[in-house]
């Protein structure tokens, strides 16, 4: 048995690649890397990797995280600029005994020393969007299309990973939930794995990915865990201050069942398994439903129009 889950329709091609690898016996971590780097390399998706929308100073600063649910090894980079795949760097850091999380210039020095591909991650279109925003004195955009992905492989090992360029027009150095173990992602092969997307400043207030995995460890299904984690944090935030930002989470249990839940109306995610071809779903209060081809086509056109 193998299972894949990933946030947002933009992960569809990456899920297809990862599925082919798992069919051929690949390790889950390698399939996860193929999935996330596929999204990182696509300039059409302006919230991840190449073509990601810049910060207030016009720089594309990226965050990524990785966790091996069997060893509990984790690695992350924060606010890194000038490298093609922050996720690959994060995964590399997870193999170290120490220095698993690096930020800014320290992360860049490590990546250069270890030969990771260097690249200007800005595109003509992303710079154009930034120029327009500067002229309009635009504040940070609260969008949240982080790619988060989970893989359970044939050996029963489970992995989680994330990659994002963060908020458009964010303050330089701002870090959200995505590279934070327990907030943006978490994996434990004795329970399951989870990944989050949404407003990082709110997601980290509930360590939502850890909480989702904890609920699975208590015996909840992946779907039940996602619903409880999102609803509980949403309720707590509203109690504290009257509102909650966008909160979405996906999960895969050690038994191979998938879950997803969100407090927004149109959160998409992709799943695949040895029993199911890659499929895009929409998370709904009344239950998750497959997205129809017209919806998928409109999503892809919308994300490639910039």
Write up what this structure looks like.
This protein has helices at 12-23, 28-40, 86-93, 104-113, 124-135, 200-203, 208-217, 222-241, 293-302, and strands at 3-7, 62-68, 74-80, 101-103, 147-152, 158-164, 185-188, 192-198, 247-253, 258-262, 267-273, 276-283, 289-290. The chain has 306 residues and is of the alpha+beta class. Helix 2 (28-40) runs antiparallel to helix 3 (86-93). The protein contains 9 helices and 13 strands. The strands form 2 sheets. The chain has a 9-stranded mixed sheet. Strands 7-8-9-10 form a 4-stranded antiparallel sheet. A hairpin with a 5-residue loop joins strand 2 (62-68) and strand 3 (74-80). The chain starts with a strand and ends with a helix. The chain has one domain (3-190, 265-302).
Helix content: 25-40%
User: Into how many domains do the coordinates divide?
Assistant: 1
Number of strands: 13
State the separation between the terminal residues, measured CA to CA.
39 Å
**Number of separate helices:** 9
Q: Give Rg in angstroms.
A: 18 Å
Shape: globular
Order of helices and strands: EHHEEHEHHEEEEHHHEEEEEH
Strand content is 15-25%
Strand order of the largest sheet: 4-3-2-6-5-1-11-12-13
Query: Can you summarize the main beta sheet?
Result: 9 strands, mixed
Mean pLDDT: 95
Spans of at least 5 consecutive residues whose pLDDT stays below 50 are: none
Helical/strand content category: alpha+beta
